[in-house]
Amino acid sequence: RLNQWVAAEHLWLPAGLWEGQVDRELAFDPGLPVAVGIDPAYSDDTFAIVTAQRQREDTIVRARFVLNPYPPGHSARDDWVVDHEEVRTYLRALRRAYPAPAVRIDGRTVAGPAFVYDPSSFTESAQILEGEGLAMLEMPQTDRRMVPATRLFYDLLLDHRIWHDGDATLALHFRNCHAVERGENGWRLRKGTKSSAHKIDGAIAAVMAVSQAAQPPPPKRIGAFLA
């Protein structure tokens, strides 16, 4: 209405909502559980890793990306592949930094973050990390899993209960999101078109991480001595 250029014709999030939730001083508490959303890639794409931690009633998120260093149309672009060992090293570091258990697997409490991942292009790495004791949780990109996760993320953000450090790439990925209705009260996030070069991987990883961070952590064991 003001005849101004905007970032996208159709925005999933209300304009300015994500940008208004920046807190550059936010810090994770190493004593609290952490959830990690992983939207992987193999080549010619963006590998997104988003960490989320619930602190009281709010959730804070941070993003890290492995980005294709070649601009679109560059002759060497097709030769670039993601260094998955670099990714695994980063995830191992997260486990060391945040040892608080976030999840139980097969009835066993596992130390460290809950690593929620899209199995596409990441199964081998997930098996390696699981063998090292990391809590790896598959999250297939199905409507049954992603629609409620996306709705939860939207509601928390609308209530100003999600905060982030202002990462520019993550903000861009949210601006690129188009919402496809699924039922009366849900969406799936999509690119504008399947062939679009605009990335949304960070937004998907953030939805996954926040959805897991909202789950109750394993109960703490209380030792007792009876005489």
If you had to describe this structure to a student in words, what would you say it looks like?
The structure is a single chain. With 227 residues, the protein is α/β, with parallel strands linked by helices. Helices cover 26% and strands 21% of the residues. It is built from 5 helices and 10 strands; from the N terminus they run βββαβββαβαβαββα. The protein has helices spanning 84-97, 123-131, 143-158, 168-175, 201-213, and strands at residues 35-39, 47-55, 58-66, 103-105, 108-110, 114-117, 135-138, 162-164, 178-181, 187-190. α3 (143-158) packs across α5 (201-213). The longest helix is centred in the middle third of the chain and has 16 residues, at 143-158. It is globular and about 45 Å long. It starts with 34 loop residues before the first strand and ends in a 14-residue tail after the last helix. 33% of the residues are buried. Mean pLDDT is 87; it is low at 4-9.
